[in-house]
Fold:
Amino acid sequence: MSKNNSIRELIPLEDYHPQQTPHALKVILGKQYQQKTRHFEVKIVTIEQFNMLALKVNGSMKNFEAGHEVRKGWKRLQDIIVANNIVSVEENEGIVFYDQANMVQSDGSIELSIGVKVEEIPYIPKECTKVTIPKRHYAKIECRCFSKEQMNLRYDYLNKWFKDKGYQIDNNSFSLEPNRLDSFNPFEIPADEIQVFDFDILYPIK
Structure:
């Protein structure tokens, strides 16, 4: 896998057979979804420094194993936060992040991390790591859609944007995917069933 290949290329679609999208979720996203499907737009944004409490997960993309591991990691992280009275800065946000250059492991599995923003904490609970994301520029595309195929179009568009604009992805920094949790929590929907997405894709610009 080349250094600038994205997680999009690892998502299996041939075995994905989604059920009908619940009408309630379409209503929740409503006009926001309609507006974002008219065209894709990549913005260069500056993200200020922040800290995360995070858990690493690892799994194969076969049978949605990696996605299931992300959801297990999210549940475990929430249990740790509650048990240790840790206050998250953004309660309605869960961030999946990864190092594109080293995401694929020697056995073919992929390594991802799941985190929440926190203030300074006196100690790091077992299993967790504290990750500091420094202030930097990212290329951002919003991903509000109702299928994995539509989601993958965003990854494709963002990768093409880098090539067309002559930018490079900084492989020494994490790519971020903050998921909005205020309308629904994707980490509570099984990976092989989820068909509604509401998150941003942020690739660090070199």
User: Anything to note?
Assistant: The chain is about 25% helix and 30% strand.
